[in-house]
Design a protein that fits this description.
- There is one protein chain.
- It is built from eleven helices and ten strands.
- It is α+β, with helices and mostly antiparallel strands.
- The protein has two domains: 167 residues, Beta-Lactamase; 76 residues, no CATH class.
Amino acid sequence: MHETERLSALIGDIYDAALDPTLWVGVLAESAAFVGGPAASLYSRDVAKRTMAAAYQYGLDPRYVQLAEQKYIKLDPTALGYFIADIEQPVCTADVMPYDEFLASRFYQEWGKPQGLVDTVHAMLDKSVTSSAAFVVFRHQRDGLVNDEARRRMRLVVPHFRRAVLIGKVIDLKRAEAASLADTLDGIKAGMFLIDAAGRVVHANLAGHVMLDAADVFRTEKGRLVANDPEAVQVLADTFASAGNGDAALGVKHRRPTFFAQR
């Protein structure tokens, strides 16, 4: 496949992973192959506490990932150099310290060398005063040290990784807010239903589900809320129709119709 086609497919997969985190490992596999290396990781690091956690990783032996998180992150002589690098700027080992000193370090001798790893190309995706998130592609002996081609390809994908990670943060926040709202609604003793303009039940709290299960006041038909009382059926229909026409039709300030029912 031509590089342009590979890149286009990879970028699409990166944004898909922002919506579905289970896709990240596959995306890292594609990215490692595209940049030039056998492994890649998305990780976060706390420089002050000297801790690291791999959010997603591909290609590394899980035992060495665990060793890195539990022990060798504290011995990594490149950590500070990568942390102070500019956002989205590809940086390799020789950019942050003399390479021969890196080879002599305990970190390399005990962690990198046994895996056959000789270099990495890092890019900061986000950082604060003491913490950071980064994307890294590892280079094996057979790949050689990071070269201009690896840097060029890294520059092509890093902006999309950064946007996808930020999108993922927003989505996670919204999910947490939605979960908190659901917990709050479930604590209400009255049956509560959030309904769209067509009368479909968007959400029901626990008491609402109990009412629907009993089906003595309300029930659902094809996802729509239906009252058992014939007179209430028309009232509900009129309410849903009015709500669909906006606030003016309802004469209230709520943009979405909300129906409470107390048994």
